[in-house]
Amino acid sequence: MSSAPIPPARRLATSVTLSYGFGSVAYGVKDAGFGTFLLIYYNQVIGVAPGTVGLVIMAALVLDAFVDPAIGMFSDRTQSRWGRRHPWMYASALPIAIGWLLLWNPPASLAEPAKLVWLFVTAVVVRSAVSAYEVPSQALTPELSQDYDERTRITAYRYLFGWIGGLSILLLAYRVFLVPSARYPNGLLNADGYHHLAFASAGLMLVAILVSSLGTHREIGRLPKVAIAKQTFGANLTELWDTMHNRGFVILMLAGVCAYTNQGISYALSTYFYNYVWQFAPWALGLLPLALFVGAGVAFVVAPRIGQRTSKPRAAFVFVIAAMLFHTAPYWLRFLGVLPPPGSVVLVSILFPIFAMSTALSVSSFILGASMMADVVEDSQARTGRRNEGVFFAGSFFVQKCTSGIGIAGAGLILFLAHFPKAAKAGTVPVETLDRLTLLFIVVYALLALAAAVLFTRFPFGRAEHDARLIRLAEAAAMDKGPIKP
After folding, report:
1. Would you write out the chain's pLDDT as a tens digit for each of its 486 residues?
2. Helix (H) or strand (E) segment spanning residue 284
3. How many angstroms separate the CA atoms of 122 and 450, rounded?
C-alpha cells in the first residue's frame, strides 16, 4: 500500500480562513437552538415532561452513532470533480433549513405521543443533515494545512464563528422574538416567537453553508489527491474499525464526551438558571450574549498563542480545570449567601464577567482539542497509510452532538430529581427546589470536567512528535514505501 499524500505546510489566505470559519455559524445556530431553547420549548410551551424530552433526544442520538461514522467514511471515499468534501457540503444546505423549520413547528392538533414522534423524527433529520455538512467541512482542517500551529488558528476561526452564530440566535431570541409582552409576560413562553426564530435561524444556516462552500471551492485543487481503491462494504467496515482504534483518537473522544456533555447540560439548564435562579430582567438577557461573545473573542486570541508556547494537551488540561472553577463559582457564592438579590443590577455586574471568563476558558479548551484531532490524522496515516479525516471528524462531531443528546437528557434528569414544576413563574419556585437544582448541577459539572481534564493529559503526542512524523511521511511518500513504523 502506498503512502497517501500529505498537504503542504502553509498559512491560508485570510479570505479562505474567513469563509471556512463562517460555515460554523450553521452549527452554532443549531447548537444554540438545540441546547438552549429546545428543552424549555417542548417542556414549558408544548407541555411535554422534561425527562421525556431528554429521552427522545437521547434516542435520536443512538442513530447518530451510526450516521456520523457512515458520513465520515463515505466522505473519505467520495470521488468527484469537486473533491471529497464539497459535494456533501452543498447537498446539506436545503435539508438542514427544511428540517429545522419542521422541528420548531409541530402541528398543534397532535396528541402528546404524536408530538414526541414528531420531535424524534425532525431531530433525526436535522442532526443527520447537519452531520452531512459539518463532518466533511471539519475534515478540511487537516487537509488545508499540515502546519501544527496553523491548524489551531483555523480551528479558532471555526469556533469564533460558531459562537457568533449561536450568540446571534440568543440576541434574536432575547431582544426580538422572545421579549415580554402583555400576552406573554415571560417571553420565553411565546410559541409564536419560537416559530419566527426558527425561520430566521433556518435562513442564517442556509446562507452560512453556501457562503463557506463557495468560499473554499477554489481550494479543492490544492487538497491532497487521495487514491481510493474499490473494495467491498465489509472491507470498508473493517477499515473504519481499524482507523478508530487510534489511541489519540480514543482519548480525545472520551475527553470530548465529558466536556461536551457538560456543555450540553449547562446550555439546557441555562434558561432555567437565568430566569428562575438569577431572575435576570429582559435588559440583562439582552446583554448576556454580548458578555458571552467577549469570552469567545478572548479564546479566539488566547488559544492559538497558548498552543504555540506550550503543549496542547497540557494547556487543554489547565483550561478545563479553570473553566470548571469559574463556571461553578456563582452557584457556590449563592449557597454562601454573599451575592446580591436576584434580578438586581449589582448581581448582573458580578455574574457577567464570571460568565465571560468561564466561556473564554471553556472555548479555549475546545479549540485545542479540535486542533489535536486534526493532528491525529497524520498519526493514523503513519500507522495505516490512509488519510481518514472524515472518519476522525465524524467521531469528533458525534461527540459534539452529545451536547444536545446526553446533555439534554442529563438536564431533564436533573430537573426531574430537583422536582422542578411545569409552567413555572420566576420568583415562585420554592427555594428548596432551586437549591436541589443548583447542587445537582454543580456536582455533575465538576465530576465531568475533572474526567475531561485528566483524559487530556493522556494524549500521546505533541509538537515534536508531530513534526518528526511529518518528515517521515514525506520521505515515505517520496520513496513510495508505504506506511512506516511510527
Report:
1. 345 666 777 788 889 999 999 999 999 999 888 878 888 898 888 888 877 887 887 787 777 767 888 888 888 888 888 989 999 999 999 999 999 999 999 998 888 889 999 999 999 999 899 999 999 998 898 888 888 788 889 999 998 999 899 989 988 998 899 988 888 888 888 999 999 999 999 999 999 999 999 999 999 988 877 766 676 666 666 766 776 778 888 899 899 889 988 988 998 898 899 999 999 998 898 888 889 889 999 999 999 999 888 889 999 999 999 999 999 999 999 999 999 999 999 999 999 999 999 999 999 999 999 888 888 877 887 777 777 777 777 777 777 766 666 777 788 899 999 999 877 788 888 999 999 999 999 999 999 999 999 999 999 887 777 778 777 777 766 665 444 444
2. helix 282-309
3. 34
CB 103 within 8 A of CB 126: yes
- Name every residue whose Cβ is closer than 8 Å to that of residue 259 and which is 6 or more positions away in sequence: 320, 365, 366, 369, 448, 449, 452
pTM of the model: 0.76
User: What is the C-alpha to C-alpha distance for residues 11 and 149, in angstroms, rounded to an integer?
Assistant: 9
Angle between helices 345-384 and 431-456 in degrees, nearest 10: 30
All three cell numbers of 166, joined, read 449561536
DSSP per position, 160-208: HHHHHHHHHHHHHIIIIIS---SS-SSGGG-HHHHHHHHHHHHHHHHHH
Question: Do 93 and 406 touch, CB atoms closer than 8 A?
Answer: no
3-state secondary structure of 33: helix
Query: How many helices (DSSP H) and strands (DSSP E) are in the chain?
Result: 17, 0
Residue type, 338: V
